[in-house]
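We treat protein structure as text, and this decision shapes the records that our systems exchange. Because each token names a local backbone shape, the row as a whole describes the fold. For reference, a complete record is included directly beneath this paragraph.
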Amino acid sequence: MNSVELTKFRAKFPILAEKVNDKALVYFDNGATTQKPEIVINTEKEYYQQYNANVHRAAHHLSAQATTAFELARTKVQQLLQAKHAHEIIWTKGTTESINLVAQSWGMNNLTSGDEIVLSYAEHHANIVPWQMVAEQTGAKIKVLPLDATGKIDEKKLSSIITNNTKLVCCSHVSNVMGKINPVEKIIACAKAVGAKTLLDGAQAIANIPVDVQQLDCDFYVFSAHKMYGPTGVGVLYGKADELNAMPVYQTGGEMIKNVSFSGTSFHQLPFKFEAGTPNIAGVIAFSAAIDFINQFTLNQADEHKKSLTNYCYKQLSLLKELQFLAEGQPDIPLFSFIIDGHHQKDIGSYLDAEGIAVRVGHHCAMPLMEYLSISGCVRVSLAPYNSLAEIDYFIASLKRFIGIESNLDTVNEVKPLETSVSECQFLLDKFAKVKSWDGKHREIMLLGKTLPRMPKDLRSEESLINGCESAAWLSVNRSSSGVFAFSADSDAKVIRGLLVIVLAVFNQKTAEQIFAFDIDQYFKELGLIQHLSPSRGNGLLAIVNKIKQAVS
């Protein structure tokens, strides 16, 4: 796309005109969910306004119209995946429910003690935990495929992990952290050679590359609509008809019933046997519009704009000497995961948010992968065709500013506590009242983080861990003989340490009565924090407060 074409394309996504912290939104969190074009938004609205009715069950015009649109969406998914039959397409709430359906219906009825389920270290939690539960209940064992230096599943280790005891192999088509296309054809071939079934998690692949399930010859393929310009709450399970027909029902209720009497119940054939209850009709019909949109602009194909985004972003990130990618080589889709030496990912994410840039930080629902890589988390930048090279430039410039500012902060108030003639609480209220912009408040929080002395490592225990804080944080409590409490706290992220300073300023050296009497919500409101903090970071503030109140109660 040239600049004019890109401008017109971006205009189809209303949210891209929004501002965040008074700055133009730069949305680089497409791996979590893509933004929705106006046609998708309007299609869902039109359903509710023009032909809202339940599907399949009524003999009136509105129901017929809704049913036709609903089933047309199923046919479009069949065509998108090149599946053999439309009835091999099952509607779910998302990738997670699709995997759980297979785990409960296929896994619980086909796996026994001694059987093996093969996963990989790069799997999303949704493709790990259901299988752990199945293994626990059936006696099956889980084996894990390692990765090679490029972040892909290591082809050389397939035959040593996938053996005659293997009954199921589950892996991501594209890792949500590595952004690399796994050698799924070889994995499927290796599984078939020992008679094992295969499930591919296509959540990251489906919006970026063409998928042909017949050519892949996988038994199951799963993905979510919201990662491909569609609505949330809609997912797809593709399964070979023979496998789905042999599987018992997953949930029971309306729609999937053929006949009910107290002498027995029979169930509908595919696909309805797995679709109990009223489905997300509006979402499915809106997803149909999203598929049309993808096909119109060939968004799941390789094109020059997507290539240029991937190449350019990788090149610019590679020029930052402080930055380290999680794996060797350029990713296959525009998704980049990295760490920056000496800087916690939460600090990076919060700074970029202050600049209007949306990225994802943390473990990305891939904690086993983080453990495998010996890191606590990372920054993930994921692009979509509506992103631009100019946005990448702004993002890179912001990263450079962050690194420069952080380097300067290292020489400011290293561990010097607050010194003021008024109470620390009032001192902070006065300080934040003078700062109007969120990026200014963010800088003050980061500076406060430098004033908090680090806790000894032996005090950073499970017992002192603050549950509910988005970054690991700890709180230690001491009570004097007069009933006054003294707190020490710590976190690996400077932004969380700064928030700890703000909370401890009002609770340190207070009695339990004083702690419970203080209006902490009003305090946060006057500081102007909650409305700018992400829900997780805002909840982290509340988690700190709750930990203190639990400790003194």
The first strand starts at residue 19 and ends at 20. The mean pLDDT is 92. The chain has 20 helices and 20 strands. Residues 3 and 388 are 9 Å apart (CA to CA).
